[in-house]
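Appendix B, example 12.
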Amino acid sequence: MIKKGIKQLIAEAEKRSEGISVEAAKARLGDANTVFVDIRDVRELEREGMIPGAFHAPRGMLEFWVDPDSPYYKPVFTEEKTFILYCQADWRGVLAAATLADMGMQNVLHLVGGFGEWSKAGAPTAPKPQKKKSP
């Protein structure tokens, strides 16, 4: 039997992370000091699109991509920027933002309501960028 359910984990993570509303996040779209980070599965991106210019970091790899000591490290995460994490409904976003805060990252927010609320608000979306094929 589990000792904590997902509702409790999310509630605890909400106390350790900070959210940003869709309206406030829309105002940061295109801001050079803000990076939107889509943590959804690639199939979700292909099916629903994403926030224009977002960096895709699958939830399962996020901690590995953030840690400079990891062989999977991605330098984008050490830039002096604000990171807005989002998933579909903000459950994974809350958990991920809290985890990155626990790792010592600053300026990490989660998009309240996730991509679902972003889309419902009529905010801009774009198709998932296609990978460049090798010659």
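The CA atoms of residues 20 and 119 lie 15 Å apart. Helices lie at 6-15, 22-28, 42-48, 62-66, 91-102, 114-120.
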